[in-house]
Write a structure and sequence with these properties.
The protein has about 150 residues and is mainly alpha-helical. It is about 70% helix and about 0% strand. It contains eight helices and no strands.
């Protein structure tokens, strides 16, 4: 049984207007395949979008902080946008508990793999972007990215 979604909303500081976007962003391809859910309603496409949205938000925040050296911007962005950071954030908001895992994934606790937890966070960011735009992604990052 999944935790109450309002706890996730509190953790990220954002409430979805379209919960279907969130549901898709939390649905693994393996789970969808087991239930016959179309692949378009899974997290993969959301993760790609979320990765780009988070990159943009983080680079913008570096520019706003006065960073102006291309090399420094790149180095700082890489330090903030990496598997370890995203995994830590995903775990801090208990994101894996909300994800719909395939049976094999659940049995093997695949979310303990850093990349998988990071992808879940990226998928969440992608859904936030589609639901509320870049301002919503910025607000969520301001809340969870500073942990």
């Amino acid at each position: 049984m999944k935790p109450d979604i309002t706890q996730l909303y509190e953790a990220i500081g954002y409430t979805f207007d379209c919960e279907g976007l969130l549901r898709s962003a939390l649905t693994r391809v393996a789970y969808a395949g087991e239930l016959g859910i179309p692949k378009k309603n899974t997290m993969d496409r959301f993760a790609v979008l979320g990765d780009a949205a988070l990159d943009t938000v983080i680079i913008e925040s570096l520019l706003e902080a006065g960073e102006d050296d291309k090399g420094e911007i790149t180095a700082k962005k890489i330090a903030l946008v990496n598997m370890s950071v995203f995994r830590s954030i995903a775990e801090s908001i208990h994101l894996p508990e909300y994800v719909y895992w395939g049976r094999g994934e659940e049995k093997n606790r695949i979310w303990e793999n850093g990349r998988v937890a990071a992808e879940c966070l990226e998928a969440l960011a992608g859904a936030v972007y589609l639901d509320g735009g870049m301002d919503a992604v910025r607000a969520v990052w301001d809340k969870i990215g500073r942990r």
